[in-house]
Design a protein that fits this description.
Layout lengths: L3 H14 L3 H9 L11 H15 L7 H10 L24 H11 L4 H8 L12 H18 L7 H16 L7 H9 L1
Bound molecules: fe (ii) ion (FE2) (2 copies).
Amino acid sequence: MATLTEDFLREFEEVVDSLPRPLLDRLLRLKRYRGHRGDDRLSHCIKTAYLAWKWAPKLRIPRRPALLAGLLHDIGYGIPGCPLCRLDPGGHCGICHWRTGAKLLAEQGVRRDVVKAVKRHMFPYSPPPRTRLDLLVWLADKIESTLSFLGKRVLDNTTLRRCRELIDVKSAGEPPVQSSSETARTRSE
Ligand SMILES: [Fe+2]
Ligand SMILES: [Fe+2]
């Protein structure tokens, strides 16, 4: 019988396979930004995706959008979107990334419930959670941050490393980046 983390890895791979190149590129860039206790922002997103995926059935939410929203929730890091970003050109501004991330995801055709969960994950800076998915992502993000800050393990290192490798491999094997208008055109064809 497959373990919980094996099930997660299988679904994680399917989600990563479904992501357009601009989102894979953005996920890779999250390696540049701090997470907690030596983590980078990409590891934080993978662990948040794991918690959201694991807890989704308790809130009667399908696991796939929970995983997707958890993985993409901080994807707006490093996209300038507010005056404070000018004070931190390294892209660490944590105030506006919910807005820049949600905008990018909407442009890339990501499902609306996931876009909204990303837009509402930074309450009280962002709009408040309204749906069960919003609440799940908001909670998973805060709990992952707290556990990692306290040095508690959320996901074993082997699974975390495998998830990071899947993103590396998928982004290396993709065709050149399309602009968002080209991507939109491709989707409508
Ligand atoms: Fe965030
Ligand atoms: Fe986060």
